[in-house]
Amino acid sequence: MNRPTVTRRQGLAIGAILFGLLLVGFVIDGGRALLGDVAGVISASYFAAVFRFTVPIAFAAMGGIFAEKTGVINIGLEGLLIIGAFSAVAALWGLSATPVGANIWVAFLLAVLASTLVALLFATVCIDFKADQIIAGLAIWLIALGFAPFASIIIWDRTNSPSVGTFPVWEVPVLADLPTVGPLFSATLPVFLLVLAVPFSWYLLNRTTFGKWVEASGEDPKSLDTAGVDVRRIRYAGVLLSGVYCGIGGAGLALNTGQFVGSGDTMVDGRGWIGLTAYLIGNYNPIGAFLASFLFAALDALQLQLQQIAGFEVSSTLVGIIPYVAVVIVLTFVGRTRMPSAAGEHYESDE
Amino acid sequence: MSAGRDRVEATLDRLVDASVLERLQISLAALVFAIIVGAVLVFVSGLIVDCPDPFLSLPGVGGACYNPFEVYWTMITGSFGSLTALGRTLQETTLLLFTGLSVAVAFRAGLFNIGTQGQMILGALGAALTALWLGELVPESLLGALIVIPAGVVVGAVIGGLWGMLPGLMKAYADAHEVITTIMLNFIAMGIAFWLVQNHVGNLESDSVLTHTIPDVAQLSPTIGGTRFSLWALLAALAAAIGIYVLYDRTILGYELRTSGLQEAAAEYGGVNAKRNIVTSMTLSGALGGIAGSIYVLMVQYRWQDGIPPLGFDGIAVSILAGNNPIGVIPAAVLFGAMQSGSVALNLTLGVPPELVEVLRGLIILFIAMPEFFRMIGKRYGYGSDPLATDGGENV
């Protein structure tokens, strides 16, 4: 079985692209002084921010990997993130009126549940009702994009929620007190979950029986069926996992901010799509996907920090499109990332 | 990879080739189901909202503020009930005809162009800049309008076409899946247009991201007072629909365009340059998206402004509802146009958030995506017996 890896050629190409884009940035927005400021921005607290920024992107990316590897292309990641973000805030806000109280952990779990239920709907539609996966995924995105602001207006009378509270910051004992790198070790739950989820996902895919089933379900469902494993079940599992991951990502995003923003493209603002680019660039490997997500988040955070240093005209818009440009270039010039061969296709058991 | 792609295309094939009658049934059934789910959503929302006089009081639950029947009735009267309402509906219809045709043209060739939105945004910018520049040079007369308006449309079409050509080239020569590339190119188009207008070609004095207003001579004057609807634009859109129908269903070129996307290898075997035809289809699709953007600027907004409505995504819904048939796009565009203008009335008179229409749009797409669902229901309730047509996912 073909284990996807990022080839050297791909790695080089990505590096060259990003270097080229940075160079273009220098020429367009001017100033060698920028370099000095970039160096000044980079610190442990900067990386702590990058980790926070990575949460929704990397979780969406890893979720997308699980779904697509089983053979169901989940293009609705963005929609699932929106559902996760909205449900987290709505749940926390709603809980305060119940005996449970405004418990952020319960709200977090409810958000993951909500996103997973929507993923279940998507799975049923794709697997049992044999819907076209691309169109159904698009529908999930569009429904979420309309539903979240709709429900926000119903609940809060406007598209943005009031502040509901954020995750407490946890400090790793001893490590958080270290000089220089200390800030890296005080973070919120979603960041710690991310650090655990990356190796966990890699292990699950590459070292377990379940991982082999996932691979087979996307590559050669017929053989998997012959081996007595229910392809349908595996595909459900893959899509539901993407729901769980996107729920964590979306809720993590919203509960780190403490508010749901539903105007425009909502607060998720394309992070699900960037997650999609991240796993394509990472070639369906959770670690590669995480690294790509981290890189995009780092650029975003850098741009934000530079924005705050007065006198700099780094276009946040141009920095914002780097992930999309990168994935288009990778898909076009570096060759195809290895899509599972049965992805997008329905499987009919002969039993 | 290529085996996988063939299968993806086989799926598209199935979608494209279903019989017209079946498509019509599925579209109508999807519409009905979306309306029902929408009604439930509205009713439940009405339970959460506070209002002085609920139309229905449920003991233990509270008052229901939104009556689904009243909601849909308001949408109908709000879209057809007066001349102004009709004008607003037709204004949206005109734009949706172009974006719907853009998606349909690609779909007919087995290509899924999700990039109409980006093609439209760049086309709109091209048209706005052309109108601003040329509008100063031509005389303030009908002659001037006859020069500057077509010029704006052509520039929009060319820019949209080039932007659509990109994913076509990537698909034909680099085997990059057009679904992914067109989605990504939407974001890139948006970013480029935003950056250009914000920093270079826009009204730099304004705090908002927008261009200057185009001169009067470049504006398509409204046919119905109080609206931004021009009959000429609608006629052009209808002509485009008929033209595309004729092109795809009555000419050899159209036949080749269709087969090239659906069965590249077979078309090549038959002596057709399939790769070039894939590029042609995507370019044509992009040009139609660009024209939609031009018309939006020349007829509705009179400038490029950040926050262009998602007409390109509505176009996907229009095309899918129409079974990707250029003639079918006409009633589908009227329907979605009516939903858009109806949602304005809905918000004004009943206070229901206009985003309801976006939810309905998504639901319609979702239901149409699963014809099997309706076949199962048909089997279960129409014919009674089919052991396969049961379980809805108990295996979780």
Automatic annotation (TrEMBL), chain A:
The chain crosses the membrane at residues 12-34, 46-67, 79-98, 104-127, 134-156, 184-205, 236-256, 276-299, 311-334. InterPro entries: ABC_transp_permease. GO terms for molecular function: transmembrane transporter activity. GO terms for cellular component: plasma membrane. The keyword Cell membrane applies. Keywords: Cell membrane, Membrane, Transmembrane, Transmembrane helix. The keyword Membrane applies. PANTHER family: GUANOSINE ABC TRANSPORTER PERMEASE PROTEIN NUPQ (PTHR43370:SF1), SUGAR ABC TRANSPORTER INTEGRAL MEMBRANE PROTEIN-RELATED (PTHR43370). It is found in: Cell membrane. It is a multi-pass membrane protein. It comes from the Archaea. This is Nucleoside ABC transporter membrane protein.
Automatic annotation (TrEMBL), chain B:
GO terms for molecular function: transmembrane transporter activity. GO terms for cellular component: plasma membrane. Pfam families: BPD_transp_2. The keyword Membrane applies. It is a multi-pass membrane protein. It comes from Halorubrum vacuolatum (Natronobacterium vacuolatum). The lineage of its organism: Archaea, Methanobacteriati, Methanobacteriota, Stenosarchaea group, Halobacteria. Its main location: membrane. InterPro entries: ABC_transp_permease. It is found in: Cell membrane. Keywords: Cell membrane, Membrane, Transmembrane, Transmembrane helix. PANTHER family: ABC TRANSPORTER, PERMEASE PROTEIN (PTHR47089), GUANOSINE ABC TRANSPORTER PERMEASE PROTEIN NUPP (PTHR47089:SF1). The chain crosses the membrane at residues 28-49, 69-87, 94-112, 142-166, 178-197, 229-248, 278-299, 311-339. It comes from the Archaea. This is Nucleoside ABC transporter membrane protein.
